[in-house]
Amino acid sequence: MNLPCWGREKAMPKAHFVTVAENPGINPDAPEDNLNLPPAIIQDSPVLQRWQKQIPNLLEDIQQDPSFRTRFRVGYNQFPSSSNTSGMGLGLLDWGIESSPLTLDADYETNFGDRQSGGLNLNYYVLPLGGYLNIAPLVGYRYIQTNDYHTQGLNVGGKIMFALSRTGAADLSFSQSFVSPGSENEVGISTLSVGYAISNHWRIATDLEQQNSKVHKDNRVGMYLEWTP
């Protein structure tokens, strides 16, 4: 009778592990490809290509990728308090400065007569750029001329941004600033803006603005066509 050999070990095949040194084409940080998708689908999808190269840091994307987009605008303005005259406006909104929370605004409005204003502001967003709500103090320079009254100088204030869509499809913002604060020529400016996308790169927007000073009050209604890069 043959007794079992309890001390005998069963021979096991040796496993072969391919290292990065043996195959330099392997990316150790790349996720395993278990999708089994046709190459054409992967080539047409930037998202799949990005995930194949390296798994993105979604939290960092939310913090760094703005939920609002840069806008170039041109449009029509109505000035009810200036004899209901009309004119045009040009603007650049939220031009991002690299990956920082700083953005740049510039605008100019005129009725081709006795009413014009323009300025340049720097915004600093204090909350993560990818959120749906953000707050930014602003500082810059502004020039205002209304009838026989005009002022210019430092412009300081703040802005609240409601990004209703991370793709720039819709947003709402309100800003309050003061030109030449503390002086006899101080002017307070309140602006409510609403924007809505009509295509991937084109939007329509509306501005409601009120200017208050010690000697004059002025308001503006604007309709704009905006382009987003």
Quick synopsis:
The protein has helices at residues 39-43, 46-53, 58-64, and strands spanning 71-79, 85-96, 102-110, 115-124, 133-146, 149-163, 170-179, 187-197, 202-213, 217-227. The protein is mainly beta.
Characterization of this structure:
This protein is mostly beta strands. The chain has two domains: 16-56, no CATH class; 71-227, OMPT-like (Lipocalin, Beta Barrel), CATH 2.40.128.90. The protein is built from three helices and ten strands. It has helices spanning 39-43, 46-53, 58-64; strands spanning 71-79, 85-96, 102-110, 115-124, 133-146, 149-163, 170-179, 187-197, 202-213, 217-227.
Mass-distribution shape: elongated
> H/E order of the elements?
HHHEEEEEEEEEE
What is the domain tally?
A: 2
Strand order of the largest sheet: 1-2-3-4-5-6-7-8-9-10
Structural class comes to mainly beta
Q: End-to-end span in angstroms?
A: 86 Å
Task: Give the SSE map.
Layout: H1 39-43, H2 46-53, H3 58-64, E1 71-79, E2 85-96, E3 102-110, E4 115-124, E5 133-146, E6 149-163, E7 170-179, E8 187-197, E9 202-213, E10 217-227
Features of the shown structure:
229 residues, mainly beta, Lipocalin, 10-stranded antiparallel β-barrel, 9% helix, elongated
